[in-house]
Amino acid sequence: MTARNDSDSIEAARQRLGKRLVILAHHYMSDAVARHADYTGDSLELSRRIPDLDAEYIVFCGVFFMAETAAILAKPGQKVFIPEMNSRCVMSDMAPAWLARNVLDVLAAGGLHVTPLTYVNSSAAVKALVGERGGSVCTSANAKVMLEWALAQGPHTLFLPDVRLGLNSADWVGLPKELRHILDIREHGKAIMLEKARQAQLLLWPGQCVIHSRFKPESIRKARAESPGCKVVVHPECHPNTVALADACGSTSFIIKYVAEAPEGSVIYVGTEWNLVNRLAGQYKGVKDVRPLLYSTCSNMEKVTEPNLACLLENLDSSPCVEVDEALIPPARMALTRMLEVCAGPASRHA
C-alpha cells in the first residue's frame, strides 16, 4: 500500500465515522501521522481534552502510557485505541508498579510519610498506586506547580520515574540540594538508605528519558561556537547541567511557543525529539532558522506510522482497544483528576 493510499484510507475512515471518531497525536509523532489528528498537543493538553470528548472511538497516536491515560479519563462506552500496542516508553518501564509499591512500603515502614508524585510517563498501575497513597500526576508543563503541591502535603515527596525532571523542578521551586535524595531502588527497595531519606524533603526515583539524556552541555557549547548569538531551548527531561546552559527550558508546547515568539532571523537550537524540531524547522523555513541541538528520535514513537493508523481505522470493530483493569481506574483517575484540578488555570510553563 502506498503512502498516498494510506492517507486516502484514513481520510475515508474519518468521513465514514464522522463525529464518532477523534484522533489525538502527541507532538513527537511524524508529520505523516500528525496531519491526520483532530488535536495535537503535549501530555497535559491531550489529557485535558479527554473528559470533554464525546466521540465513541478515541485513537491515540503516541506511546502506550498516553493511551492508557486516555482510557482512564474516558467516559463509559468510549473505546480508546492505539495504532501500535507495543509502543512502550522506556522511562515508564523503569518504574514498574510492583517495585514502586515496595519502595513506598519500605519508606512507610521506616516511619516516613511520603506523598508520591508520578510523571505522566508512567503506567496506569503506577498512577493507581499514587492515587491510593494520596498523590498525584504531573506533566513536563506543570511539574513545578505539582511539585509545589506535593511538597505542601507533608514532610516527604517521592518524584518518579524521571530524576532529571524531578531535579529541574526542584531547582524551579528553590528546594536546596541538601533536601534532595536520589533513592537506591536495588534489591527490591531494600537498599534504600532510610537515614538519608529522612533528611530529605524530595526523594527521587533514578529513571530517565533515553531521548533527552543524549543532550549534553557540550552540544550547547558547540551550537554557540557555530552560531554566535543563537538561542537554545531544551526539554526539562534533559540533565540539569544542560538546562543550566540553555536560554530556556519547558514542555513541548512551551518549546513551540518559544520558537513562535522568537524574532525573525533568529537561529534557534532545540533540544527535544527530532520530529517536533523538524516540523518547526519546516514551519519557519525562510523566517527563522530552527535546528536540532542533536538528532535524537524516539524509536517507540516511530512505531506509530501512517500505514498502521490506516490499518487500525479500517478494522476498528475487530481491533483490540486499550483496556485498564477496572480496579485501577478509580485511584488512577483520582490521581489524574487532582492534577487537572490543581492546574485548572493556565498551565505553568517554566521559561
Description:
- The chain has a five-stranded parallel β-sheet with strand order 6-5-7-9-8, with helices on both faces. A four-stranded parallel β-sheet has the order 2-1-3-4. A four-stranded parallel β-sheet has the order 11-10-12-13, with helices on both faces.
- It has 351 residues and is of the alpha/beta class.
- Helix 8 packs across helix 9.
- Strand 5, helix 7 and strand 6 (136-138) form a beta-alpha-beta unit.
- The longest helix has 15 residues, at 3-17.
- It folds into three domains: 3-88 and 301-320, 3-Layer(aba) Sandwich (Rossmann fold), CATH 3.40.50.10800; 92-209 and 331-342, Rossmann fold; 212-292, NadA-like (Rossmann fold), CATH 3.40.50.
- It is 42% helix and 15% strand.
- It is built from 16 helices and 13 strands.
- The model is unreliable at 346-351 (pLDDT under 50).
- The radius of gyration is 20 Å and the shape is globular.
